[in-house]
Amino acid sequence: MSQERSPAAAVDGRMKRVIVVRFGLMPFVLGAIFFLPAGTFRYWQAWVYMGVLLIPMFGVLVYFLRKDPGVLERRLRTKEKEIRQKFVLLFGWPSMLGTFLLPGFDRRFGWSAVPPGLVLAADALVLAAYLGFIRVLYENRFAGRIVEVEKGQKLIDTGPYAVIRHPMYAAILPIYLFTPLALGSFWALLPAGLMPVVLAARIFDEERVLSRELDGYKEYMARVKYRLIPGIW
């Protein structure tokens, strides 16, 4: 799904401060997630991974604060309105927590050893996927975290949306799948492997909502046949 670019959304000064504070806390949140389970700061895989995510994230923050802070405000919304999406998130939490917390414990107890070359290759793939995520945000200013159709949204099929219906999920999925290796853990691949199932369930329900509430979405589905992977699904 994609919508025409809109003028910069009206976001007041207070909301901009909330956005800056929330994004500013991200390094500390990630640090707690990685280093507390590891029991040490001597965890180079986590430092590299944080750089891979946080450096481009800072660029996103600066760009959209100037051009369209409404994009960032939508990314802060987490309260789903659809009951089915709430259940999807409920079942998705174990996968998310395991993907990001388990590598730290793996580092502490030495359960697995991912070769440094494979770690860095995974970091490169995570970065590429994250840049794809940023591209989607630029194309679709209404790409929030929750499933909803806002007043004034208009469907278009440009950019990555001309190829697949859900390019944001196509970017998010490899981030989850390669994060365990980037953090030096083979064991965390197990919870990460559940994420495709979670995203598939989310996509099915999201398309139900969009078909019902967004003008032209049914026709868009007929034109763009693949949801996530061109030529496959």
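Above is the first protein from milestone M3; the second protein from the same milestone is given next.
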Amino acid sequence: MISFKSNKPVVSNVIANNGLNRKVLITGAENTLARFLAYGLLDAGAQVSVQAVSPDAFLALKPNFPAIQHSFADPRFSEMLATLAPDIILHASAESPRENSAQAPLGAFNRIVEKTAVLCDVVRRNSPGTRMVLMSSTDVYGECPVAKSEGAPLAPVSMNGRYFAMAEHILQDFSNYYNMKSTVLRIASTYGPAVKNNPVCDLLFNLLGPQGTNIKFGFDPNATRDVIHAADALQAVKLILSNPTEAAYNIASGHSMTMGELNTHLCSILDLTNTGSCGSPTFIEATHQYFDVSRIMALGCKPQVPLIEGLRGYAAWWSGMKAA
């Protein structure tokens, strides 16, 4: 079902001039980063509606957004899409732990590839003027011992990376054949309050997770990761949605550090003994991640959240969540 708030957010002249006075539909809002972006874009003055099939996500979002619970294949979704006529659809894949892509590849294919194809077809038939913005992943690049720009060949090594590359190709096909306006966001490891399934989340689980269990996320302390705070990712998304350019963008910090360094920072913040390596990773992914952010910086984006401050806030959120 879909419901509408009677009081739409007031849009300032500044926001309107920056292009944020847009109708944005966020699909796959089960995704915790997509949910973070929904609230951030709403605060920025966008008219945000959401789609989430999961009952828990739908009920959590419904009080604050016009909400759709129908799947893309449901004719009722097509009817509601035609009624909403959003300027932009920000499409995220419903979230699942990263290792599940290897353990349940068919489910991952459905979440990332099939749903992107179905949504593209629904949009081109029912809302052809809508700009599709795909939340992809920097996993599409594979190994990145040096900074990879958006023009680098895609050579994914993980199941997630391969599927996101397929989703990007599908979106490009619809753009080419049906003149669909499209943009791709290649998002690096993003952490922040309520944002899950990222390396920082895994490390915090190892340090603060349920006691009395042997559940641990194995990690290579020498593996490198580019991590970005969700608030900085939101800044980048707002700029991209304000800019009509159809392109791919890396959303990352532009810096790379080892998992061991991240773990040391978290141990220092939490005043815990450094636990070091927790063994080998449980699924295949790139060992090195490092991304060129020149294109997004050219739009005026510059990360604002210092790493230690961001990690401290994320650890505080995690501790509060455990205590609740």
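Note on the second protein: Residues 13-323 form a domain with the Rossmann fold fold (CATH 3.40.50.720).
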